Amino acid sequence: PPSSGFGFEGTASDASGISRIAIYVYDDVRRAYTVSNAAATYSGATSVWTFAVQPSHVTAGGFIRLWVQAVDAAGNTSGWQAREVEVQAPTPPDTTSPTVTITAPSPGATVPFDGFAFSGTATDADSGISRLQIYVYDYGRGSYTVLDATATYIPGTGSWTFPVQATHLTLDAFALLWVRAADGAGNASPWQFREVEVQRPPALDTSPPGQTNTPPVEATVPFD
Fold first, then answer.
1. Which residues pair with residue 102 across a beta bridge?
2. Which of 39, 73, 98, 192 is the most buried (most CB within 10 A)?
3. pTM of the full structure
4. Beta bridge partners of 66
5. Using an 8 Å Cβ cutoff, are 69 and 22 in contact?
6. Gap between the Cα atoms of 101 and 54, Å rounded
7. Alpha-carbon dihedral sign for residues 137, 140, 145, 150
8. If DSSP states are collapsed to H, E and C, what string results for 82-99?
9. What is the spatial distance between Cα 203 and Cα 200, in angstroms, rounded to a whole number?
10. Cα 33 from chain centroid?
11. Measured distance CA(102)–CA(90) in Å, rounded
12. What SS3 string covers 109-176?
Protein backbone atom coordinates (compact mmCIF):
# COMPACT_ATOMS: atom_id res chain seq x y z
CA PRO A 1 0.00 0.00 0.00
CA PRO A 2 1.07 3.63 -0.44
CA SER A 3 2.88 5.56 2.27
CA SER A 4 0.28 8.30 1.89
CA GLY A 5 -2.28 6.15 3.72
CA PHE A 6 -4.78 3.43 2.81
CA GLY A 7 -7.86 1.57 4.02
CA PHE A 8 -7.78 -1.54 6.23
CA GLU A 9 -11.16 -3.25 6.01
CA GLY A 10 -13.10 -6.49 6.24
CA THR A 11 -16.34 -8.01 7.55
CA ALA A 12 -17.59 -9.12 10.96
CA SER A 13 -20.89 -10.69 12.06
CA ASP A 14 -22.47 -12.14 15.17
CA ALA A 15 -25.99 -13.25 16.11
CA SER A 16 -26.01 -10.85 19.08
CA GLY A 17 -24.50 -8.02 17.01
CA ILE A 18 -21.07 -6.46 16.86
CA SER A 19 -20.29 -3.88 19.53
CA ARG A 20 -16.70 -2.99 18.60
CA ILE A 21 -13.87 -3.68 16.14
CA ALA A 22 -10.43 -3.20 17.69
CA ILE A 23 -7.44 -2.25 15.53
CA TYR A 24 -3.69 -2.40 16.14
CA VAL A 25 -0.92 -1.38 13.72
CA TYR A 26 2.69 -2.43 14.33
CA ASP A 27 5.51 -0.67 12.43
CA ASP A 28 8.51 -2.97 11.94
CA VAL A 29 10.90 -0.09 11.23
CA ARG A 30 10.11 1.75 14.47
CA ARG A 31 9.50 -1.55 16.33
CA ALA A 32 6.43 -0.08 17.96
CA TYR A 33 2.66 0.00 17.74
CA THR A 34 1.59 3.16 15.97
CA VAL A 35 -2.10 2.34 16.52
CA SER A 36 -3.21 0.70 19.78
CA ASN A 37 -6.74 -0.51 20.49
CA ALA A 38 -8.37 1.95 18.09
CA ALA A 39 -11.97 1.41 16.99
CA ALA A 40 -12.81 0.75 13.35
CA THR A 41 -15.98 2.07 11.75
CA TYR A 42 -18.60 -0.68 11.54
CA SER A 43 -21.85 -0.94 9.56
CA GLY A 44 -24.39 -3.41 10.93
CA ALA A 45 -26.34 -3.22 7.68
CA THR A 46 -23.45 -4.46 5.54
CA SER A 47 -21.27 -6.14 8.24
CA VAL A 48 -18.30 -4.18 6.83
CA TRP A 49 -15.68 -2.58 9.06
CA THR A 50 -13.10 -0.03 7.91
CA PHE A 51 -10.13 1.75 9.39
CA ALA A 52 -8.05 4.51 7.77
CA VAL A 53 -4.32 3.85 8.16
CA GLN A 54 -2.62 7.27 8.18
CA PRO A 55 0.85 8.27 6.88
CA SER A 56 1.93 8.76 10.50
CA HIS A 57 1.19 5.09 11.23
CA VAL A 58 3.68 3.72 8.69
CA THR A 59 7.29 4.08 7.52
CA ALA A 60 7.77 4.29 3.77
CA GLY A 61 9.67 1.31 2.39
CA GLY A 62 9.14 -0.76 5.54
CA PHE A 63 6.72 -3.48 6.69
CA ILE A 64 3.71 -3.14 8.98
CA ARG A 65 1.42 -5.66 10.65
CA LEU A 66 -2.28 -4.92 10.85
CA TRP A 67 -4.36 -6.56 13.59
CA VAL A 68 -8.15 -6.71 14.00
CA GLN A 69 -10.47 -8.24 16.59
CA ALA A 70 -14.27 -8.14 16.83
CA VAL A 71 -16.28 -7.88 20.08
CA ASP A 72 -19.96 -8.83 20.17
CA ALA A 73 -22.76 -7.36 22.25
CA ALA A 74 -22.25 -10.03 24.94
CA GLY A 75 -18.57 -9.16 25.31
CA ASN A 76 -17.25 -12.21 23.48
CA THR A 77 -14.17 -11.61 21.32
CA SER A 78 -13.04 -13.18 18.09
CA GLY A 79 -9.54 -14.44 17.52
CA TRP A 80 -7.06 -11.88 16.29
CA GLN A 81 -6.72 -11.62 12.54
CA ALA A 82 -3.45 -10.20 11.13
CA ARG A 83 -2.02 -9.09 7.85
CA GLU A 84 1.57 -8.07 7.05
CA VAL A 85 2.15 -5.65 4.17
CA GLU A 86 5.03 -3.68 2.72
CA VAL A 87 4.60 0.07 2.56
CA GLN A 88 5.44 1.57 -0.79
CA ALA A 89 8.52 3.78 -0.89
CA PRO A 90 7.76 7.31 -2.07
CA THR A 91 8.40 8.02 -5.72
CA PRO A 92 11.47 10.23 -6.06
CA PRO A 93 10.77 13.66 -7.51
CA ASP A 94 11.25 14.15 -11.23
CA THR A 95 14.40 16.22 -11.70
CA THR A 96 15.18 15.18 -15.28
CA SER A 97 14.82 17.82 -17.97
CA PRO A 98 12.87 17.00 -21.14
CA THR A 99 14.60 16.59 -24.48
CA VAL A 100 13.79 18.90 -27.40
CA THR A 101 15.09 18.84 -30.98
CA ILE A 102 14.65 21.02 -34.06
CA THR A 103 13.90 19.25 -37.33
CA ALA A 104 12.94 22.22 -39.53
CA PRO A 105 14.21 24.46 -40.90
CA SER A 106 17.61 22.86 -41.43
CA PRO A 107 20.80 24.58 -40.18
CA GLY A 108 21.73 27.60 -42.29
CA ALA A 109 18.60 27.30 -44.41
CA THR A 110 17.19 30.11 -46.51
CA VAL A 111 13.55 30.37 -45.49
CA PRO A 112 10.59 31.80 -47.42
CA PHE A 113 9.98 35.50 -46.87
CA ASP A 114 6.23 34.93 -46.48
CA GLY A 115 6.54 32.55 -43.50
CA PHE A 116 7.38 28.93 -42.71
CA ALA A 117 6.99 26.20 -40.07
CA PHE A 118 9.43 25.99 -37.17
CA SER A 119 9.13 22.40 -35.91
CA GLY A 120 10.74 19.49 -34.10
CA THR A 121 10.23 16.86 -31.38
CA ALA A 122 10.05 16.90 -27.58
CA THR A 123 9.94 14.01 -25.09
CA ASP A 124 9.84 13.49 -21.34
CA ALA A 125 9.56 9.98 -19.88
CA ASP A 126 8.50 10.89 -16.34
CA SER A 127 6.13 13.87 -16.27
CA GLY A 128 5.29 14.53 -19.93
CA ILE A 129 5.66 17.74 -21.89
CA SER A 130 3.61 20.66 -20.56
CA ARG A 131 4.77 23.51 -22.85
CA LEU A 132 7.04 24.47 -25.75
CA GLN A 133 8.31 28.07 -25.52
CA ILE A 134 9.17 29.93 -28.71
CA TYR A 135 11.17 33.12 -29.33
CA VAL A 136 12.09 34.67 -32.69
CA TYR A 137 14.84 37.29 -32.98
CA ASP A 138 14.90 39.42 -36.14
CA TYR A 139 18.38 40.76 -37.00
CA GLY A 140 16.87 43.23 -39.45
CA ARG A 141 15.05 45.06 -36.67
CA GLY A 142 17.47 44.13 -33.90
CA SER A 143 14.68 42.87 -31.64
CA TYR A 144 12.50 39.88 -30.74
CA THR A 145 9.39 39.66 -32.87
CA VAL A 146 8.05 36.63 -30.97
CA LEU A 147 8.26 36.61 -27.16
CA ASP A 148 7.37 33.57 -25.03
CA ALA A 149 4.87 32.11 -27.51
CA THR A 150 3.59 28.52 -27.23
CA ALA A 151 4.11 25.93 -29.95
CA THR A 152 1.47 23.33 -30.78
CA TYR A 153 2.42 19.94 -29.30
CA ILE A 154 1.07 16.47 -30.18
CA PRO A 155 1.84 14.00 -27.34
CA GLY A 156 1.08 10.93 -29.46
CA THR A 157 3.87 11.70 -31.92
CA GLY A 158 6.05 13.91 -29.72
CA SER A 159 6.08 16.57 -32.43
CA TRP A 160 5.76 20.34 -32.03
CA THR A 161 5.30 23.15 -34.54
CA PHE A 162 5.09 26.94 -34.58
CA PRO A 163 4.10 29.06 -37.60
CA VAL A 164 6.66 31.83 -38.17
CA GLN A 165 4.82 34.65 -39.95
CA ALA A 166 6.02 37.19 -42.51
CA THR A 167 5.48 39.89 -39.86
CA HIS A 168 8.14 38.23 -37.70
CA LEU A 169 10.83 38.62 -40.39
CA THR A 170 12.79 41.21 -42.32
CA LEU A 171 13.39 40.50 -45.98
CA ASP A 172 16.92 39.51 -46.96
CA ALA A 173 18.02 39.47 -43.28
CA PHE A 174 18.83 36.76 -40.73
CA ALA A 175 16.54 35.46 -37.98
CA LEU A 176 17.29 33.42 -34.87
CA LEU A 177 14.68 30.85 -33.78
CA TRP A 178 14.61 29.60 -30.16
CA VAL A 179 12.71 26.73 -28.51
CA ARG A 180 12.62 25.27 -25.00
CA ALA A 181 10.51 22.42 -23.54
CA ALA A 182 9.06 22.25 -20.01
CA ASP A 183 7.68 19.10 -18.38
CA GLY A 184 4.84 18.56 -15.91
CA ALA A 185 7.23 18.74 -12.94
CA GLY A 186 8.51 22.17 -13.96
CA ASN A 187 11.86 21.02 -15.36
CA ALA A 188 13.01 22.89 -18.48
CA SER A 189 15.31 21.76 -21.27
CA PRO A 190 18.27 23.86 -22.43
CA TRP A 191 17.38 26.36 -25.14
CA GLN A 192 17.82 25.09 -28.70
CA PHE A 193 18.22 27.56 -31.55
CA ARG A 194 18.53 27.78 -35.29
CA GLU A 195 19.80 30.69 -37.40
CA VAL A 196 18.25 31.14 -40.83
CA GLU A 197 18.37 33.65 -43.65
CA VAL A 198 15.14 35.13 -44.95
CA GLN A 199 14.70 34.79 -48.70
CA ARG A 200 14.79 37.91 -50.87
CA PRO A 201 11.47 38.25 -52.71
CA PRO A 202 11.61 37.87 -56.52
CA ALA A 203 12.15 41.04 -58.59
CA LEU A 204 8.97 42.55 -59.96
CA ASP A 205 8.47 42.96 -63.71
CA THR A 206 7.64 46.66 -64.15
CA SER A 207 7.21 46.53 -67.96
CA PRO A 208 3.88 47.82 -69.28
CA PRO A 209 1.47 45.03 -70.16
CA GLY A 210 2.00 43.61 -73.64
CA GLN A 211 5.30 45.47 -74.14
CA THR A 212 8.97 44.76 -73.68
CA ASN A 213 11.90 46.92 -72.73
CA THR A 214 13.49 46.33 -76.16
CA PRO A 215 12.51 48.82 -78.92
CA PRO A 216 11.12 47.19 -82.05
CA VAL A 217 13.49 46.57 -84.99
CA GLU A 218 12.74 48.74 -88.07
CA ALA A 219 11.69 46.78 -91.15
CA THR A 220 14.31 46.80 -93.91
CA VAL A 221 13.08 47.62 -97.44
CA PRO A 222 15.02 45.65 -100.05
CA PHE A 223 16.59 47.57 -102.98
CA ASP A 224 15.11 47.22 -106.47
1. 120
2. 98
3. 0.61
4. 25, 83
5. yes
6. 45
7. negative
8. EEEEECCCCCCCCCCCCE
9. 9
10. 40
11. 35
12. CEECCCEEEEEEEEECCCCCEEEEEEEEEECCCCEEEEEEEECEEECCCCEEEEEEEHHHCCCCCEEE
Length of the chain, please?
224
State pLDDT tens for residues 75-121: 999 999 999 999 998 888 999 999 999 999 999 999 999 999 999 99
- CA pair distance 25, 46, nearest whole angstrom: 24
**Percent helix, strand and coil across the chain, each rounded to 5?**
5, 50, 45
Per-residue pLDDT tens for 175-203? 999 999 999 999 999 999 999 999 987 77
Question: Parallel, antiparallel, or unpaired for β 129-138 and 174-183?
Answer: antiparallel
* DSSP type of residue 224: -
Extract long-range pairs of 35-44: CB within 8 Å, 24+ residues apart: 40/8, 40/9, 40/68, 42/12, 42/18, 44/17, 44/18
